């Protein structure tokens, strides 16, 4: 199953969630590939020892047919997790692919021959609704939408839902929202409580039961190139991402 983590709003916890969901699933013994499509390469930087040792990235595979995806997949620092790496060169992808007739299908095409090797492929996406995110939605079976529990948290979700609908109509009718994930939650504040109410009103049953709380440990772990499960195994964040992974597995079966 291929799951894209997407929301064009910046800083809502896409990368933190993509990484820790991948780590949680890998920890449960699943074989997992994390695909970093963001030119900011935050997922890559958070789980690859020295990215500069790897000259090629997803960009090279997406623009050139002769480049093999296997060559840009490396073992991450997170046990059991492979990562398809991104670099800042990904920022050139959109201008390069615009006007190409198969511009939206490149990621789907390059994942097709390797998807059987993995139980889950998790795609981290950039904070835009451009061609990179479209490639991710065309390639995916499911989407996770992380939404920060804050004021204005739902701003922009209409555009995202419209894009998902369009992708469904035009190329990928199977695409489904597997869940909406409330992130950066702070249950002490009225703003967070109010945001949860509004998110539940819009998305109802789609909202995962598990919330991800604001946590210093979750913020710190990428700097040590660790997931929350080795960095702070007994933290609230570790507990929540484990619960979330269980919910994802159970929803994936339905
Ligand atoms: N639950 C959390 N508790 C505390 N800090 C968090 C949490 N989740 C994410 N952060 C921090 O918030 C910032 C944004 O998170 P993250 O990078 O995961 O968001 P993003 O949606 O991927 O951002 P972008 O849109 O730039 O790709 C990061 O500094 C991250 O460490
Ligand atoms: Mg990110």
Question: Can you walk me through this structure?
Answer:
Strand 6 (142-148), helix 7 and strand 7 form a beta-alpha-beta unit. The two termini are 12 Å apart. Strands 3-4-2-5-1-6-7 form a seven-stranded mixed beta sheet, with helices on both faces. With 254 residues, it is of the alpha/beta class. Helices cover 40% and strands 14% of the residues. The chain has eleven helices and seven strands. The chain has helices at 14-27, 42-47, 58-63, 93-97, 106-111, 131-139, 157-170, 190-203, 216-220, 228-231, 236-253, and strands at 2-5, 32-36, 73-75, 81-84, 120-124, 142-148, 176-183. 46% of the residues are buried. The chain binds adenosine-5'-triphosphate and magnesium ion. Magnesium ion is lined by residues 14-15, 38, 42, 124.
Kindly summarize this structure in a few lines.
This protein has 254 residues and is of the alpha/beta class. It has helices spanning 14-27, 42-47, 58-63, 93-97, 106-111, 131-139, 157-170, 190-203, 216-220, 228-231, 236-253; strands at 2-5, 32-36, 73-75, 81-84, 120-124, 142-148, 176-183.
Uncertain residue ranges:
none
Strand order of the largest sheet: 3-4-2-5-1-6-7
> What's the alpha carbon Rg, rounded to whole Å?
17 Å
Q: Provide the structure class.
A: alpha/beta
Bound molecules: adenosine-5'-triphosphate, magnesium ion
Average pLDDT for all residues = 96
Helix content: 25-40%
Task: Count every helix, treating DSSP H or I runs of 4 or more residues as helices.
Answer: 11
Please report the distance between the alpha carbons of the first and last residues: 12 Å
Strand content: 5-15%
- The topology string of helices and strands comes to EHEHHEEHHEHEHEHHHH
Biggest β-sheet, characterized?
7 strands, mixed
Shape: globular
Number of strands: 7
